[in-house]
Each structure stands twice: as structure tokens, then as C-alpha cells.
Design a protein that fits this description.
With 975 residues, the protein is mainly beta. The protein has nine helices and 86 strands. The chain has a 23-stranded parallel beta sheet that branches. Helix 6 (440-449) links the parallel strand 32 and strand 33. Helix 6 runs parallel beside helix 7 (472-480).
Length: 975
């Protein structure tokens, strides 16, 4: 074949439209460089015929134009707005304008015109044939081939190898259009082919006449040339080429373009203007490879400046392929000794990069004994070597590019032929047991050819890539041929809409488990119910041999999929990735779940972002970021979502992370032992919200519960660990009749750290309290044995504590309570600190307020102080309210209206009173604030004092006057 070339030999006027052509504004946005220099131009090249055919003329196979044909012109650069000339333009990978030139002939004169004859912008233009209107302003440009191509004339059915070129080849040309103010700028350019067109020439050395029906071309990674080697695979091959002159550095060669010949134009157009689009595959099998020819990547990486990529790609009907298929129709007969020749159109480049092999070809034939074949169908697999290039390998314009990769480099514009021979030994029947397939059609074809009358037969098919489906047609073939036991080595999809027993048409075991290593990746998109697998018992055919295990596979359940192995009690021994629904009995394998997953038992590591339920036993770590319900667990549970524990025993670490919620719903024991006090390494660790709705116990010593989150122990439930630690920020609520204790109540302790809180309405024993305990119920029991924290026992529960604790009684609004009642409550609370918030404290007679705890009564004063916050004291003139305490804190606005408030530690020992910052102490004309006669009061004023009455018996009286303290007004204090 001789590639068509269009050269400037005969002037045919073709005036391009201007940058602002109104006809194109409806289809694409206008060019932003509205002030670009412009020119009128005419295209000039040779035409020998007006027929719209791809035909063989005197110059070989060529495309001949006819009226109505369109050539497109793509402006692909930006202008610096400084001046005109080629130096002032920068290439882009996107389009500014896309103009069609329509061929018309009038009075024997042929012209190529745009809808309006007007000037065009100066710049870098790429001309292409045929025109395609989908290339719009600031969009990408690319062309694809169909991986299934014809080598026969669809009108006649006769063999015609050039049909693939006629259907798929595209042509490109380049020209820098210069601005001119005078006349018409006549331009010519080379149209060079975009895609390579390799031929595959197979000598028929079988001694038989053969009808060739198809060839399949794949990249070859087989380890052997013998038969069909299932250990080999194939890589993805590109079907699309992008026009990307910026990425390809076309500016390195465009200024010398006019000095180069056709072969150099073909080479440089491929090397500097074209790129593949996409990323490398996730695995070696899925790479789009050719990778490089000159040492640099041939993949385009679209950036944010490239617009329209998603919509452009959505418009493409093809994607990278694992195989190209050449179809020959029904009439291609090859005599013994003759050649079968197939030609395919595909992107140029280095194929099977970094592998020794190039291509493998599957040749599908029928024996011809009479007429057009007798239907006996055969197939052969052939390893291809180096292509034979027309004109020889050396001295071509490509040599500097391809170097030692020449034997695997497909080149546009060069006739390359791969040659091999086919003998009778290479032919195999279509019902072969081993085969490699890359498409659903190929699966259906293999099954349709499988012999249904040869007894039980194990057929193993290796799938290439992820595009093979067990279609309804394939399912029906397996139903019709129950003797065929289909094994898939690779990836297969069970699409939605299949019968629910379709999974049972795939086999995962060989007779008596004697089989080569075959692993299926099973992608389930519909509902499937796995049943018992019936196996062939070759040792004793009279005995039924079955398997209740789904294994030798990896399972993927899509969002629309559902897998049921519970109904027939099938055990899964596979890794599972689930986005749909799984209803399982027993599972042995790791699980990635984002859907709904329910199992009786699981032995595997689980990463869950969906809804995960184990009804009986979990073995293997679980990381939960969704919703999980777990009965019993042998290994670590880490919860970042919502987790419910319903079982009886958890042997390893359980962690509830920040922001997560955990519910202990079943009476549970925790068994993880750790002798060290390490955070997140204890039996139960909570940083989030933990609701303990059932008894939670440790199985022995050194099994601890650590918390810095929020814990609620439900009513009547018991939490009993060898050691419980509530960290800074942690809050534990013990509900009515609930119990939080440590083993035997003396062998460990409940540690409530600084900044931590325990709210107790039940029973808490053996607490080392350095934080805060709020007693919620008078029937509760709080036993503090160590620490220097605070207990609020305003509800007057049963509290015992060590000397360093502060046990406070807090009364909000004292107005309706007598001092006798207050004193009685303080005693019931066993408090050593009194806090009064608001109200009026009344007294008619002198009253000693000296605390209620046993220790306070023994000492005769509040050992941890008294707080008056916003309290009015209204007594009888001449009568005293004497508060025995080590310290008095005055907060808010506190006033002494009548009577005397005396503050002292003991009769002969003074106390300290502090008017806190922001507080106000007001002493009226009839009020007195004082120390004892023999126990002077030290008064610290951080807030304000307004003394219209008497403040006396003050140790530091000289500091307590307007003259000495700007926070003081009124009468000075007295000694």
C-alpha cells in the first residue's frame, strides 16, 4: 500500500473564514485575540479524481475527494499581542477555532471554501481530514479507531484489506499562516497519516485449504511459545490519539517545518504533536503502553487550562483495548501455501514496552473440504517477531527516534508487515480447554463452540482486563451444556439481571482438588445465591463429591450487587470488597465493606465504612468508620463510627475514637491483659461516646478501662475492671443503681484525674479523685479513698472521702431556708465546704455555722472554705451569724443589710476573706462585717468594697480604706 499524500501542485482557491465569522459563533465561542493580524489564504494541492472512494489508482491505494468533503483547520495557539510573525505565538493543547472547508466544483473549477470568504487570523494551524464539528473552542482534539475492524467490503462481502484504513485512518497537516495586507496567500502542506497500519501476514503451511474468519492481535507477555500459556497476559493498547502540540513541544520543530520532506513531517507530527490520553493502569496488565520512543512520556496530562475534557471524553465511543480484531467476512479462502493477510489501523508507538515479546495473533479458520467450508472450526495462536518494513529498516527518518526499540515500534506512514507461518500442529479445535479472552463476545464464542457431548469437561479461560461478563447468552449456553464446568482465571462480572443461580455456573474447584493455581476475581452487579458446588470424583465416581466452600477467588460486590451464601450455608474463603449487600454464613478472608454486610462468623481483617454485622464471632482486627455490630471478638476493634457490642467476650483491645459512638448492648467481658499503663493499649479505651447498656466486666487483673470521652452507664448495670482511669476531659455518668467498681474493690482503683468528671447516681467505689465528682442521688454511694479533688454532694448522698478531698454542699437561693436547715443539710452531705449562690440569708439570733462533716465538727470549722455568691445577709441588729472556716470567698454582689457577719477559724484563730475580682461587698449603715475579738480577719480586696456601716477586727486594716485602696469606698476598716 502507498500512503496518500496531498502536495501543492495545482492552485485551488479556498478562502478561510475570519476569526469573528458569525456563522461559527453559534457553534463555538469567539477567539479572544480579536486584534490578531489577519490574511486571506488559498489551499493548493493535487487532486486526480472526484470519486469519494478509497481505491487503487496509478499511485496505489489512495483516498479520492468528492464534492461535499470537508477539511478542518484548527487554530491552536495564543498570541502575545506584541507583533506578527511565528515568534509571537505559543502552542496550546486546546482549540481556538475549528473551520470547515467544503469542496465544491463549478464549471470544471474545484474550490475549497468556508461559508464566507474572509480573512483568517495569523497563527499555527493544523489541518485534518475529515472535518469534525465536535472540536470546539478551548476543547481538546483527538481521534479514535474502532478496535474491531473489517478487512472486507461490507457491500460485496469480499476480502478487502484496505477497508480498515478507509474506515479508521485520519490525516493531519500543519502550516503557519502569515499575515498579509495584499492579495491571497497561497499555501500548501503535506497531509500525513495519523495512525499506523501494520499488516499481519500468515503463511498457510497446514497443507489444507482454509477459510480465515478473523485475526485477534494482542500484546504478548507469554513465557512460552507452546499452545496457550495462561501465565501470560496482555496490556491495554491505546485506541485514541490526541493533538497536543504544547505537550509535545511542537515549537521545537515548527520553524524549520518547510525545509523537511514528507517522511520527516510524518515522523515529527507523531513525535511532537500527538499524545495518548489517560493514566497508567492500576496494574501491569492495565498500562496503556506504548510508553516512549524518545525517552519521554507520550501520555498527555490535561491541566486546568484545558477546557471541555469531561464532555469530550463522554462523547468518545471507544476506550483503550486489550485486543484488536480483524474480521474477514465469510468469503476469505486461503489456499495451502498461500498467505492470509490482515491489516489493522492503530496508534503508532512502542508496544509491549520493556518486554521481550511484541504481539501474539490468534487466527480463526474453518477447514474447507467443499464449497465455502464445512464448519469445522479451528484456532491457532502465533507469536510474532519483528515487522518487515517496506524499504528496509535502516536509513529512515525514524531511526534516530526508535533506536533499539525499532522491532516494537509501529510507525505511521510506513508499511510494516509481521510475518509468520501456520502449520497443522498449531491448529486447535474451538472446544479447547484453555483460552485467553478479553471480551464478553469472546466468552460467548468459546462456549458456543464447546462440545456438549464429550462428558464432563473442565474449561479454564483466562480473562485479560476487566471487561468480560457472564452475559445472559453465556449463562444460557452453560445451562444448555451442563457438562461444561467453566473456570475463570482472572476478572469476570456477573451483571445485573442474571438469574440468581448464575454464580453456580462458575466452578472454583477441579476434580478431587487436583488443579493448577487458578484465581477468579468475581465482580457481582446483581443478586446471586451461592449453592453447593458439585465436583467430579475421579477416584470413586459412584460417590458424590461436593464443596460447600466458595474459594480460589476474590469477590467484589458492586453497589447494585447482592451475594447470599447464608441460605445454603456456604463458607466463603476469599477476600471480599463489598459496596452492595452480602448475607453470609461463615467468612474466612479480609473484608473491605462500604455496603451492607452480615455474617455469622468472620475470620479476617475488616475495614468498614458501611453497615457491618457479625452475629456470632469476629476473628481479625476491625477498623470501623461506618456502623458495626459485633457479637464476640478475638482481635482488636477500632471504632471511628458507630459500633454496638452484643457479645459475651472481647479478647483484644477495644478502642472507641474521638467523635465515635460505641454501645455495649450485651453482657460483655473484656480479656486483654496489659501490665503497663499505656494509653490505647488497655482492654477498653474510650475517646468518644460510650453507652454501657449492659454489664461490662474484665475477666481478671491487669484488664483496664481508660476514658477521656463521654461514658454513660445505664441504670442497674455494672462496670467492673481491675483499674478504671478517667482522664482530663473525660466524663462518666453512673446512672441509678448502676455500679462502677474495681476487682474485689481493693485490688485496683477508679482514678478520676484533674479535669475529669464522674456523675454518680449509683455506686462508685475505691476512687482516687483529683477531678470532680457530682453526686446525683441521695441514695447513691460514693467512696473516695485518695486524691485532692472535689465532690459536689448537694443532694446529700452517702459519701466517704479522704482528708485531702473537698466535699462541697451547694445551696442555690438561700431565701427559703433557715440557718438550722442549712446546717442540717451540710451535715447530711458530710461537706467540708459550703457554697451559697443567691438569695437572702436571715438570722434573728446569734448562730454558729461551722460545717457538717465529721472532720469539720471535730475541728469546729469548714476546712475547705465557704463561698457567698450574690447573697444578702439580713439579721437582727446586735445579733451575729458566725461562720467558722479557714477562708471566705465573696463573689457577685453580696450585701450585709442588718446584723453582723463574723468570720473566724476558731475563737483564737483568724480566717481569710477575699472579695474576688469583679465582686462587690456592700455593708449598709446597720450592717457589720468583722473578725473575732481574738481572731482577727485578713481581708483581701480584689473586687470592690462599699462600706457605709462597720468593718472591724481586720488584721490588715491599714490596707482597707479609700486612701489605701482604690477599690474601697466609704468608711475605713477598723483594727
Amino acid at each position: 500500500m502507498k500512503t496518500s499524500r496531498f502536495l501543492s501542485t495545482m492552485a485551488i482557491t479556498a478562502l478561510l473564514a475570519a476569526c469573528s465569522n458569525e456563522e461559527f459563533l453559534n457553534e463555538q465561542a469567539p477567539v479572544v485575540d480579536s486584534n490578531r493580524p489577519t490574511a486571506k489564504i488559498a489551499l493548493t494541492f493535487d487532486e486526480a479524481s472526484t470519486r469519494l472512494e478509497y481505491d487503487k489508482g496509478s499511485e496505489g491505494w489512495q483516498w479520492y475527494f468528492a464534492d461535499g468533503d470537508k477539511i478542518g483547520a484548527l487554530l491552536m495557539d495564543t498570541w502575545d499581542e506584541q507583533a506578527d510573525g511565528i515568534e509571537h505565538y505559543q502552542f496550546t493543547d486546546y482549540v481556538h477555532t475549528n473551520y470547515p472547508f467544503i469542496r465544491t466544483t463549478k464549471n470544471g473549477v474545484t474550490t475549497w471554501n468556508t461559508p464566507e470568504d474572509a480573512a483568517v487570523c495569523e497563527g499555527n494551524y493544523f489541518f485534518y481530514f475529515p472535518y469534525d464539528k465536535k472540536f470546539t473552542h478551548r476543547g481538546l482534539v483527538g481521534w479514535s479507531v474502532n478496535p474491531v475492524q473489517k478487512n472486507y467490503d461490507p457491500q460485496t462481502g469480499e476480502y478487502f484489506q484496505m477497508q480498515s484504513i478507509k474506515d479508521n485512518q485520519k490525516w493531519l497537516g500543519y502550516k503557519f499562516v502569515e499575515a498579509t495586507d495584499e492579495g491571497v496567500n497561497k499555501i500548501g502542506f503535506d497531509f500525513v497519516p495519523l495512525f499506523a497500519t501494520p499488516g499481519f501476514k500468515i503463511a498457510n503451511m497446514t497443507g489444507m485449504k482454509l477459510k480465515v474468519t478473523k485475526m485477534v492481535i494482542r500484546t504478548n507477555s507469554n513465557q512460552s511459545n507452546d499452545n496457550i500459556d495462561l501465565t501470560g497476559t496482555s496490556r491495554l493498547m491505546a485506541t485514541t490519539m490526541m493533538l497536543a502540540p504544547k505537550t509535545g513541544n511542537f515549537d521545537a520543530i515548527n520553524k524549520t517545518w518547510e525545509n523537511k520532506d514528507f517522511s520527516e513531517h510524518t515522523r515529527d507530527m507523531w513525535l511532537h504533536a500527538q499524545r495518548y490520553i489517560g493514566e497508567n493502569g492500576q496494574s501491569e496488565d492495565e498500562k496503556i503502553d506504548p510508553t516512549n520512543a524518545d525517552g519521554s512520556s507520550l501520555l498527555i496530562n490535561p491541566t486546568s487550562e484545558v477546557y471541555g475534557l469531561p464532555s469530550w471524553m463522554a462523547d468518545m465511543s471507544t476506550e483503550p483495548t486489550y485486543e484488536y480484531e480483524i474480521q474477514f467476512g465469510d468469503n476469505y479462502i486461503v489456499e495451502a501455501g498461500d498467505y492470509a493477510v490482515g491489516r489493522v489501523v492503530m496508534p503508532g508507538g512502542v508496544y509491549n514496552h520493556d518486554k521481550a515479546e511484541t504481539f501474539e495473533v490468534l487466527v480463526f479458520v474453518e477447514k474447507v473440504t467443499s464449497g465455502n467450508g464445512n464448519g469445522e472450526q479451528l484456532v491457532a495462536r502465533i507469536d510474532m517477531g519483528k515487522p518487515q518494513t517496506q524499504g528496509g529498516m535502516e536509513g529512515s527518518a525514524w531511526d534516530d527516534v526508535v533506536s533499539d526499540a525499532a522491532q516494537k515500534f509501529l510507525k505511521p506512514g510506513v508499511t510494516q508487515v509481521f510475518q509468520a507461518s501456520l502449520d497443522a500442529n498449531a491448529l486447535q479445535s474451538y472446544n479447547i480447554s484453555d483460552f485467553k479472552i478479553a471480551s464478553t463476545d469472546r466468552l460467548e464464542w468459546v462456549l458456543s463452540q464447546a462440545n456438549a457431548n464429550t462428558g464432563v469437561k473442565d474449561v479454564t479461560l483466562k480473562t485479560i482486563g476487566k471487561r468480560v461478563e457472564l452475559s445472559k447468552a453465556a449463562y444460557d449456553l452453560l445451562v444448555a451444556k451442563p457438562n461444561i464446568r467453566l473456570h475463570i482465571d482472572g476478572y469476570i462480572t456477573l451483571p445485573a439481571g442474571l438469574p440468581t443461580d448464575a454464580i453456580n455456573k462458575l466452578y472454583f474447584h477441579f476434580p478431587n482438588n487436583n488443579y493448577p493455581f487458578v484465581k477468579t476475581t468475581l465482580n457481582i452487579e446483581g443478586e446471586q445465591v451461592k449453592d453447593v458446588e458439585k465436583m467430579v470424583n475421579t477416584e470413586d465416581p459412584s460417590q458424590e463429591l461436593t464443596s460447600t466452600v466458595l474459594e480460589n477467588c476474590e469477590i467484589i460486590v458492586s453497589a447494585s450487587g447482592k451475594l447470599d451464601t447464608k441460605t445454603n450455608d456456604i463458607t466463603i474463603k476469599s477476600k471480599i470488597t463489598n459496596a452492595g449487600t452480602v448475607y453470609a454464613a461463615d467468612v474466612e478472608g479480609n473484608i473491605e465493606n462500604s455496603g451492607d454486610f452480615t455474617a455469622d462468623t468472620v475470620n479476617g481483617v475488616v475495614n468498614n465504612t458501611g453497615n457491618y454485622i457479625v452475629n456470632e464471632q469476629q476473628t481479625g482486627d476491625v477498623i470501623n468508620n461506618g456502623t458495626a455490630t459485633i457479637a464476640n471478638a478475638d482481635n482488636k476493634l477500632a471504632n471511628n463510627g458507630t459500633m454496638t457490642l452484643t457479645g459475651a467476650l472481647y479478647k483484644d483491645i477495644v478502642i472507641n475514637e474521638v467523635g465515635a459512638e460505641m454501645i455495649i448492648a450485651g453482657e460483655s467481658q473484656f480479656d486483654h491483659v496489659n501490665s503497663a499503663m499505656t494509653v490505647d493499649q488497655q482492654a477498653l479505651n474510650n475517646h468518644g461516646t460510650l453507652n454501657i447498656n449492659a454489664d461490662a466486666l474484665s475477666t481478671g487483673m491487669q484488664r483496664r478501662f481508660y476514658n477521656d470521652g463521654t461514658v454513660v452507664i445505664a441504670e442497674g448495670k455494672t462496670v467492673n475492671f481491675s483499674y478504671i482511669r478517667n482522664y482530663n476531659g473525660g466524663e462518666i455518668t453512673v446512672s441509678n443503681n448502676a455500679i462502677m467498681i474495681t476487682k474485689q474493690n481493693t485490688l485496683g482503683s477508679v482514678v478520676n484525674e484533674t479535669g475529669a468528671t464522674i456523675n454518680n447516681a449509683g455506686t462508685v467505689h475505691n476512687v482516687e479523685n483529683n477531678g470532680y465528682i457530682l453526686v446525683l442521688d441521695e441514695t447513691s454511694i460514693t467512696n473516695v479513698t485518695a486524691g485532692n479533688g472535689t465532690i459536689n454532694n448537694s443532694v446529700m448522698g452517702d459519701v466517704t472521702y479522704n482528708d485531702d478531698q473537698t466535699c462541697e454542699y451547694v445551696e442555690d437561693n438561700i431565701s427559703n431556708m433557715t440557718l438550722e436547715q442549712l446546717n442540717d443539710n451540710v451535715k447530711k452531705a458530710d461537706a467540708n465546704k459550703l457554697v451559697i449562690n443567691g438569695g437572702t440569708l436571715r438570722f434573728e439570733d446569734t448562730f454558729n455555722l461551722n460545717g457538717g462533716s465529721i472532720t469539720c465538727e471535730k475541728r469546729g470549722y469548714f476546712g475547705k472554705g465557704v463561698v457567698l455568691n450574690g447573697v444578702e445577709l439580713d439579721g437582727t441588729t446586735g445579733k451575729y451569724c458566725i461562720i467558722y472556716t479557714t477562708s471566705l470567698s465573696i463573689e457577685g454582689t453580696t450585701s450585709i443589710n442588718h446584723g453582723e457577719l463574723a468570720v473566724l477559724k476558731e475563737t483564737t484563730s483568724g480566717a481569710t476573706a477575699t472579695v474576688e475580682e469583679g465582686a462587690n461587698l456592700i455593708v449598709s449603715n446597720y450592717g457589720t462585717f468583722r473578725g473575732g475579738n481574738n481572731a482577727k480577719l485578713t481581708l483581701n480586696v480584689l473586687g470592690d468594697v462599699h462600706n457605709n456601716g462597720t468593718i472591724k477586727n481586720i488584721q490588715n486594716y491599714t490596707d482597707c480604706s479609700t486612701a489605701a485602696n482604690n477599690h474601697w469606698t466609704g468608711n475605713a476598716a477598723q483594727q
